[in-house]
Amino acid sequence: MNDNTKREIDAAVEAHGKWKHRLLTAAIKDERNLPVADIARDDCCQFGKWLHGIELSFENRNQVETIKTLHAEFHKEAAAVAGMISKGSKDQALQALKTGAFIDKSVQLRNALVSWKVTLR
């Protein structure tokens, strides 16, 4: 399971790292039809589907619960930025992509995932 978990973590770090670029591109192109409700869901992305199905054990319970929380918060903040873009608040969205909750949650999620991977044998 650890090799599979490591692969899932690597894929999650890469996929969630691409969100900033996607949102930045959407803001610059003034895309108004973003699927905000879907972006807000933490169980729609590949990692979220896997994470919600993972079996908790004594060893991984704390890390998995922390990552589930951070992952949900990340999607909430990504959806908030997408909502700004969809409503035409381009400047506000661009600012949110530089500093603020989206960036904070992105960094926290990445750090938690990397820390989890380090603990796997």
Task: Explain what you see.
The model has no long low-confidence stretch (mean pLDDT 94). With 121 residues, the chain is mainly alpha-helical. α2 runs parallel beside α5, α5 runs antiparallel to α6 and α5 runs antiparallel to α7. The chain contains seven helices and no strands. 26% of the residues are buried. The longest helix has 26 residues.
Which structural class matches the secondary elements?
Answer: mainly alpha
What's the gyration radius in Å?
15 Å
Main β-sheet description: none
Q: Shape, please?
A: elongated
Poorly predicted ranges: none
**CATH architecture title:** Up-down Bundle
Helix content: over 70%
CATH homology group: Aspartate receptor, ligand-binding domain
SS strand fraction: under 5%
Counting DSSP H or I runs of 4 or more residues, the number of helices is: 7
Instruction: Return the average pLDDT rounded to an integer.
Output: 94
Number of domains: 1
Head-to-tail CA distance between termini: 10 Å
Quick rundown:
The chain is mostly helical and 121 residues long. It has 7 helices and no strands.
Features:
single chain, Four Helix Bundle (Hemerythrin (Met), subunit A), 0% strand
How are the SSEs placed, and which strands pair?
Blueprint: H1 2-17, H2 19-28, H3 36-40, H4 46-53, H5 61-86, H6 90-96, H7 101-119
Helix pairs in contact: 1-7, 2-5, 2-6, 5-6, 5-7
